[in-house]
């Protein structure tokens, strides 16, 4: 008995930690069974109840009456609408919208309207445009002037009537007609108002778009109802899209029936009388803070909390005060951001101490991504060495070049920042001043930004006046900022591409392959592309063209293509020159085509395909961007494979070759853009045509146009290996680039090393 009692005690002691779990499971199962039995009995009673079903309660939606969530319920459920097409009706192609957000019914967030006048259009309105306009996604200025002269960089809508009520009426009509279906929120302000753009944008992100919102600084009507309020126009006010849509049908009645001197009172009375909505200063937990400026106010001395929290400040009497307000609020916002960064860094340090890695897991700088860790030697990011005068990693491949432009400004700024940070850390005990930059290193880490390591020769001065020269190494990081999506004009893939192919006598062996690829990938697929051949005759060959035409074989091939494809015409242009300058050749072609022509300047080694032509169309935007693709150049098979079988193009695509960054032969651009840049070039060089021999089309766009030059690798342009003939009569730079292209196109370093090794082995034996 004693042994049994001991065994029972041991069993209970072992079971004691699991007793709460067992009791919880038992209780949960029991409650589940009881609830299931109650639900089952209630369902049976509902099924067995005689008579028709009871009608839903008054005002309830049918879905809610049937146990499904109604329109006001938060538990939204998707509803699948089955597709049905009437077989008796003819099939009609569905037209898709240009942008997916249009098809899904998305709206832009905020539209801003600024009311201005004749007296303030060139003063306060310009100040608004220079301070806060670029922070808003869309901003328009409205005035009653007729044929007003628009200041640079502003979009102005002139209604032609300077009466304040009429201006407000026409503005509301214009906003509804042109932007009512595109935006969720509409912010109306005057040009004597300073609005904190970022605060206004943050406000609308915290408001629900399903309510009728009339938000601003609420003011009482003079002699009116004490409960009714209108939003003061001087401090700006916010209208929701739903309120604007409901208000628009009543604007004409408001214009005829409501008499008022102030446009903001007129609009407020219109909203109250016809919609029953009054202005509020706070909504959904969000406050619309304002601040009224007194006369002779010094913004730099304003330290009140009400001023710092204000979304809108009024009245702003002149442009200088507007700029001072913008400077002060920018400083306040910057101080807040720095304080938030410090708080976040402190939180990160505190939390990192609790992680398994401990304090060793804190990266520097705190809050910035850790440096990129390469997995192999091919992923190592190299450092670029520089001094205050020279850079030892140059874009053109030369070992040393002068530090200038943006690179020089970058180095100067980073040195000043390093000295400033040292003084901030060690003052007032020490004061540092730079003597010399001994060594500088920088590299771009795509995971965090630009990294710098500086060896500085500094002079450190103490409080007692003693000084000492010392060398100190500092590390700095310029982190990547917020990613910004640059808006681009819309382009389509339906644009016709005009291929231009210059041909010399040295290119005759490759023309047949080019024409075959062009016929297979464009003519057979009915792609919207045309071809123009440019025959470049040497003066000696041009004199003998009557007896022996060096391009007779090419012309015969073109004739065969035109017979095979009856609807296709391939014109050619004959040019006589000793120096085939790319710019001079394009001058001839440009004059023979319309200004809206999309050119693709090709080379005879290019293998045309539909994939690249579509990218040419998409990456070339008229009056905005030109496209210079970097083709993939295959290596010399004699060096790469050395008698072995060539690798399969399917498995080793883009393997045995490189992207030829020295070649600018291929280009996509519009004729109008070329003509504009060429006109500026002609005015610069006057009659010195010999300058054109040292230029390419890329140089024309780079130096004489304000367009974006899109230079990117293009895997759709693959060229077989061939040894190009470099014309020594071209400029030194063009000839040098051609030679480098030939040399780097031979093979990779490993292939060249293996070839040299095999040659030495053969010579030794």
UniProtKB/TrEMBL annotation:
Chain intervals for the UniProt region annotation (Disordered): 47-79
Enzyme Commission (EC) number: 2.4.1.-
GO CC terms in record: Golgi cisterna membrane
Membrane topology listed for this record: Single-pass type II membrane protein
Enzyme class: transferase
GO molecular function, one term: N-acetylgalactosaminyl-proteoglycan 3-beta-glucuronosyltransferase activity
UniProt keyword annotations, A-Z: Glycoprotein, Golgi apparatus, Membrane, Signal-anchor, Transferase, Transmembrane, Transmembrane helix
Bias-annotated ranges (Low complexity): 57-68
Signal peptide: none
Family, as annotated: Belongs to the chondroitin N-acetylgalactosaminyltransferase family.
The name this protein goes by in its record: Hexosyltransferase
Protein's organism: Myiagra hebetior
């Amino acid at each position: 008995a004693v042994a049994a009692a001991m065994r029972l005690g041991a069993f209970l002691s072992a079971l004691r930690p699991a007793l709460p779990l067992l009791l919880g499971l038992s209780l949960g199962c029991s409650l589940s069974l009881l609830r299931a039995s109650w639900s089952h009995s209630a369902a049976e009673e509902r099924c067995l109840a005689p008579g028709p079903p009871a009608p839903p309660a008054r005002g309830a939606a049918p879905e809610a009456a049937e146990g499904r969530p109604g329109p006001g319920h938060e538990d939204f459920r998707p509803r699948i609408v089955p597709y049905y097409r009437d077989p008796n009706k003819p099939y009609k192609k569905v037209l898709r919208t240009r942008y997916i957000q249009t098809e899904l019914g998305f709206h832009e967030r905020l539209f801003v309207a600024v009311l201005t006048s004749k007296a303030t259009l060139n003063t306060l309105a310009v100040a608004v445009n220079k301070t806060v306009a670029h922070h808003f996604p869309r901003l328009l200025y409205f005035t009653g002037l007729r044929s007003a002269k628009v200041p640079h960089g502003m979009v102005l809508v002139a209604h032609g009537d300077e009466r304040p009520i009429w201006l407000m009426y026409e503005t509301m009509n214009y906003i509804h007609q042109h932007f009512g279906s595109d935006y969720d929120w509409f912010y109306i302000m005057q040009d004597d108002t300073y609005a904190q753009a970022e605060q206004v944008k943050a406000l609308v992100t915290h408001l629900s778009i399903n309510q009728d919102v009339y938000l601003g600084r609420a003011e009482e009507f003079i002699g009116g109802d004490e409960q009714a309020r209108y939003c003061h126009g001087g401090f700006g006010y916010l209208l929701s899209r739903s309120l604007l849509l409901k208000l628009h049908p009543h604007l004409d009645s408001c214009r005829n029936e409501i008499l008022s001197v102030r446009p903001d009172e007129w609009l407020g009375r219109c909203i109250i009388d016809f919609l029953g909505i009054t202005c509020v200063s706070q909504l959904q937990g969000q406050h619309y803070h304002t601040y009224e400026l007194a006369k002779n106010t010094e913004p730099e001395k304003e330290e009140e909390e009400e001023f710092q929290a204000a979304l809108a400040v009024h009245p702003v009497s002149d442009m200088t005060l507007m700029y001072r307000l913008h400077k002060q609020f920018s400083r306040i916002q910057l101080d807040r951001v720095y304080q938030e960064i410090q708080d976040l860094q402190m939180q990160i340090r505190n939390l990192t101490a609790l992680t398994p890695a401990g304090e060793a897991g804190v990266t520097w700088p705190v809050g910035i991504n850790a440096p990129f860790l390469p997995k192999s030697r091919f992923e190592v990011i190299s450092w670029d060495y520089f001094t205050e005068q020279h850079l030892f990693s140059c874009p053109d491949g030369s070992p040393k070049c002068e530090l200038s432009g943006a690179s020089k400004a970058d180095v100067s700024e980073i040195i000043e920042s390093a000295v400033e940070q040292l003084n901030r850390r060690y003052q007032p005990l020490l004061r540092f001043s730079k003597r010399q930059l001994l060594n500088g290193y920088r590299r771009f880490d795509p995971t965090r930004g630009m990294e710098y390591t500086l060896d500085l020769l500094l002079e450190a001065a103490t409080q007692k006046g003693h000084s000492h020269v010392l060398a100190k190494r500092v590390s700095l990081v310029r982190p990547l900022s917020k990613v910004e999506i640059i808006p681009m004009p819309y382009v389509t893939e339906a644009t016709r591409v005009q291929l231009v192919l210059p041909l010399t006598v040295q290119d005759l062996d490759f023309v047949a392959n080019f024409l075959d690829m062009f016929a297979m990938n464009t003519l057979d697929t009915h792609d919207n592309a045309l071809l123009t051949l440019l025959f470049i005759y040497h003066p000696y060959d041009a004199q003998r063209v009557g007896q022996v035409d060096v391009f007779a074989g090419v012309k015969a091939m073109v004739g065969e293509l035109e017979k095979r494809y009856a609807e296709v015409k391939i014109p050619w242009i004959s040019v006589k020159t000793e120096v085939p300058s790319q710019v001079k050749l394009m001058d001839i072609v440009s004059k023979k085509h319309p200004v809206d022509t999309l050119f693709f300047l090709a080379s005879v080694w290019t293998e045309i395909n539909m994939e690249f032509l579509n990218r040419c169309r998409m990456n070339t935007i008229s009056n905005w961007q030109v496209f210079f693709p970097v083709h993939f150049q295959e290596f010399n098979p004699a060096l790469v494979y050395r008698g072995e079988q060539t690798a399969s193009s399917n498995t080793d695509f883009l393997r045995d070759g490189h992207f030829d960054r020295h070649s600018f032969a291929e280009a996509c651009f519009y004729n109008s853009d070329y003509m504009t840049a060429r006109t500026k070039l002609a005015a610069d060089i006057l009659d010195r045509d010999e300058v054109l021999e040292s230029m390419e089309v890329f140089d024309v766009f780079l130096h004489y146009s304000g367009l974006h030059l899109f230079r990117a690798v293009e895997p759709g342009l693959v060229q077989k290996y061939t040894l190009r003939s470099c014309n020594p009569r071209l400029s030194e730079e063009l000839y040098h680039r051609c030679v480098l292209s030939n040399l780097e196109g031979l093979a990779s370093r490993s292939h060249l090393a293996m070839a040299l090794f095999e040659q030495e082995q053969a010579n030794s034996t």
